[in-house]
Each structure stands twice: as C-alpha cells, then as structure tokens.
C-alpha cells in the first residue's frame, strides 16, 4: 500500500499521472527481488505487469486520497 501511495504522490507532484502504471511496475521491479524466490521472479514480474495493465485499462485515473 505504501508503495502505491508513494507512486501516486510522485505522479501527482510531477503532474504526470499518465506515467503511474510505468512507475508502479518500476517500483515492483525494485521490490520483487527482495520479496520472492529468485526462481519465481519472472512469474511475479509478469503478474505485476498484467495486474497494472488491467487496472490501467479501466480508463479511470486513480484518485488521490485527501485528508
């Protein structure tokens, strides 16, 4: 969750919300090697890529949380 929030805040701060899917996949690419078995890394990379693409295809921009 914190990763998603950080990616969203950075996208909003730079006014580049369209880059959100790429930024999220990049963040997971950095995190996955520390979280999963190296033999399963390709599987999880593909899973993240598919999930981000599925959310991106909805056509609605993510809403930032406000306090």
Q: Would you spell out the secondary-structure blueprint of this structure?
A:
Elements: H1 2-13, H2 20-35, H3 41-56
Task: Please explain how this structure is put together.
The protein has 67 residues and is an all-alpha fold. Helices cover 66% and strands 0% of the residues. It contains three helices and no strands. It has helices spanning 2-13, 20-35, 41-56. α1 (2-13) packs antiparallel against α2 (20-35) and α2 (20-35) runs antiparallel to α3 (41-56). The model has no long low-confidence stretch (mean pLDDT 80).
In short:
This protein is mainly alpha-helical. The chain has three helices and no strands.
Number of DSSP strand runs: 0
Average of the residue pLDDT scores = 80
DSSP strand content: under 5%
Instruction: Give the low-confidence spans.
Output: none
Features:
single chain; 67 residues; 3 helices; 0% strand
